[in-house]
Amino acid sequence: MNTLSDLINDLEKMPLKEIAHRISEGDRLAVNEFHRRTPFLVAGGARVTFREYVHFLVEMALDSWQWGRLGSNAVERAGDLLLDRFFNMPDAVTDEAKHHRNHEGGDSGTDCRNYFRAFLTSLEDDIQKHGIQGDVQAEEFAANHLQTFVKRHFHFCLRESLRESNQFISRYTWKVNGSRFCLWFPKSFGGKKRGEWLKTHIGTPDSTNPLERERIQALIDRELVMPQWVSFSNVEDRTGSSPSPSTSRGCADSEDKTFPTIREFIADEKAESIALQRRAIRALGPERLRRLVRAILEHFNGDEESDTRIAHEHGLSPATYSRFAGRDWDKGNGNGNGNGSGAAKSVSVPDLFLNIAHVIATKHPEFAAVARQAGVWKRVAEVASFPIQPRMRMIANGQ
């Protein structure tokens, strides 16, 4: 008979995927082992635990344009919700609970087994898609996939935190086929209308999918448009400004189709990927790099003089800035003055513009739609097809 010490030793030797599987089956020792490990990569190449990574995400959100203006309470509440999703395992484990999982928001009903099941499902799909082989490669791939999965859920938690503080909406528990979905609706849309709306627009939900509640809530947010209180001090009168961050939408997963959202996503991703940048850019540190990217994209339609000013303000040499975000790289391309094929030309694409092209072309359909509307999709797709890997963690790791 194995002792507790033997079980712990066995867990320490297991790959991340097997640990996640053990947790999904209700193994509390596996939960402890998971939170002891350091699979998450942050700025500077350091590996950290889940709790440390949540703290990192909270700090990133507080420093961001979109979420920082909410104040620390809403963002820190999102961090607590995220911790709960990967820590909490209810005491009672019954067959009924396994087959009819609750889909609750907030703290009540949260079960980490559901989220590890969802992680395993998405991981398996990606492993088959990318043909991952070998234990070392599989472990690294699983860690990278987990980081993307957790970051996505942080954005879900940010939205949930905003809903909790929204005085114009209220909870509604939808009971269907033995499952319960705790959802948010506008208070003005009450009574029997909620159940009827769900029956019409959702039909029969997939109660076996741990992310079904998020899918349904996103549809409610989009179709019914959640009301909110907007202060005059938060209203921006410039064309193309993004909406107040007090909406129920998030950053990278947002369905908002404005360029400021893209700017914030790119800036955050570059800061997270600082370990992959050139030496002079790494020397800036994640926060200064984030501010640099924001400044560049805010003056995207400026001239070379603005480039010189931005480079000077951020302590970069002309050569370093040119390699990172110089705007003259494309001169002569496609007008008879170029000196080679598209593939040859690709080596001179500045790092930032190559990154942007990949994000727009491969990661977010909303961003691609904006590029098409702006008439730049063809060029974006061409740059994204160049045979050179962008300096972004989420793409460099095949995510």
Report on this model:
By secondary structure, the chain is mainly alpha-helical. The protein has helices spanning 4-13, 16-24, 28-36, 50-63, 65-68, 72-87, 95-99, 112-130, 135-164, 192-201, 212-225, 259-272, 279-282, 286-298, 304-313, 318-325, 342-345, 351-362, 365-374, 377-384, 393-396, and strands at residues 40-41, 47-48, 169-176, 179-186. The strands form 2 sheets. The protein has a two-stranded antiparallel sheet. Strand 1 and strand 2 (47-48) form a beta hairpin. Residues 93-101, 229-260, 332-347 and 395-399 have low confidence and may be disordered.
Quick tags:
21 helices; disordered C terminus; single chain; 399 residues; 57% helix; globular; two-stranded antiparallel ribbon; mainly alpha
Can you lay out the helices and strands and say which pair or pack?
Blueprint: H1 4-13, H2 16-24, H3 28-36, E1 40-41, E2 47-48, H4 50-63, H5 65-68, H6 72-87, H7 95-99, H8 112-130, H9 135-164, E3 169-176, E4 179-186, H10 192-201, H11 212-225, H12 259-272, H13 279-282, H14 286-298, H15 304-313, H16 318-325, H17 342-345, H18 351-362, H19 365-374, H20 377-384, H21 393-396
Antiparallel strand pairs: 1-2, 3-4
Helix pairs in contact: 2-3, 2-8, 4-6, 6-8, 6-9, 8-9, 12-14, 18-19, 18-20
